[in-house]
Amino acid sequence: DDIFTSELRAAGMLRQGTQQSFAVLLPVKSVGVMGDGRTYEEVIVLRSVTTEDFMTADWARLPYDLLAQVSRRIVNEVKGVNRVTYDITSKPPGTIEWE
Fold first, then answer.
1. Is the full-model pTM beyond 0.70?
2. Which CATH number is correct for 2-86, 2.60.120.1440, 3.30.450.80, 3.30.300.10, 3.40.50.720?
3. Cβ-based burial of 28 (10 A; exposed 0-12, middle 13-18, buried ≥19)
């Protein structure tokens, strides 16, 4: 969460471009490659939405460069994580939070 929110803040999008943003650690592992070897590590999902009333919400269209920077930092700075995804589900059909 800290990496995601700090990068959003640095880009001026923490409150201006989004109403709620967070990271979720999934209870699944993913195969990846780090250095010269295969890894089997955790997955982080990023979620950021825009909304006026929280009854409905749309996924925030964050710049690709920002998402790439967040992904790089998470994979390089968070031990045990080798994959980062971005949730583009609106509400409805999804909810804002993950359970």
1. yes
2. 3.30.300.10
3. exposed
**Dihedral class, residue 52 (left if φ above 0, else alpha if ψ from -120 to 50, else beta):** alpha
Residue extents of the structural domains in the chain: 2-86
Query: Which token pair is 80?
Result: 């045990």
* HEC assignment per residue over 1-21: CHHHHHHHHHCCCCCCCCCEE
Contacts of 2 (CB under 8 A, 6+ apart): none
Count CA atoms closer than 13 A to 42's CA, side-chain side: 14
Integer Cα distance of 28 and 65 in angstroms: 26
- Give me the average pLDDT of each 10-residue run along the chain (99 residues): 95 88 95 90 97 95 97 96 97 93
Max distance between CA atoms of the chain, in angstroms, equals 48
